[in-house]
Amino acid sequence: MRKINALLTGAALVAVLPACGEEAPDAASEPSQRQDSAKLTTLHGEGEFTDYRPGTQASAIRYDKKLVPSGAEAEVTLTADSSGVRVELEVSGLLPNREYGAHVHVKECGPTGDDAGPHFQHEEDPKQPSVDPKYANPENEIWLDFTTDDEGEAEVTSAVKFTLGDRVPGSVVLHEHHTGTEEGEAGTAGGRIACITLVKQ
Predict the structure, then answer these.
(1) Is residue 195 assigned to a domain?
(2) Is the bond into 129 cis (omega within 30 degrees of 0)?
(3) What is the model's pTM?
(4) What CATH number is given to the structural domain containing 46?
(5) Domain span at residue 46?
(6) Distance, CA of 106 to chain centre
(7) How do residues 27-73 score in pLDDT, each as one tens digit?
(8) Tell me: the pLDDT tens digits for 74-95?
(9) CA nearest 149: which of 198, 104, 97, 196?
(10) Of 29, 95, 155, 193, which sees the most CB atoms within 10 A?
(11) What is the dihedral of CA 22, 28, 34, 35, to 10 degrees?
């Protein structure tokens, strides 16, 4: 019996010791991994676009019935961590074969498109509305311009290298056309035709 116990003890030691040439796992790295996962932020919004109705909280609101027909839908997922921000937008039921603009905005959707506030910017332009290419560009903002297919559907993904920090965006706004980049019109994309509110998951 004593011999068997000795063998079992030896086997247990072999199991926990690292193989020759390998380093033992660093227990100190585990808290760091937990911290990285804690920094993960996920925002989501989806729904069928409806006209604003007082007293209701629709997650997807339209402001232009012609460019956003009844039955049009959208889904947005934003994920952010210490390496950057990634946003995925999927739409359906919009006008076919048409260009639309889209950006991440500061505030939630409201009765009008203006309620969503300005574009979410990593380095904020002191002058608003921002039309300076130094600030209004796809590296400092999150642009999601797309062109629908024959069925009025589209999927687009945008990834930026900046982090959110203490600020969290509130919505994604759809615009009349693709985004301008020239001086004096950088970041502009026509009227705000619809909005999807982002909610923290």
Answers:
(1) yes
(2) yes
(3) 0.81
(4) 2.60.40.200
(5) 41-200
(6) 12
(7) 444 444 444 444 799 999 999 999 999 988 889 999 999 999 999 99
(8) 999 999 999 999 999 999 999 9
(9) 97
(10) 193
(11) -130
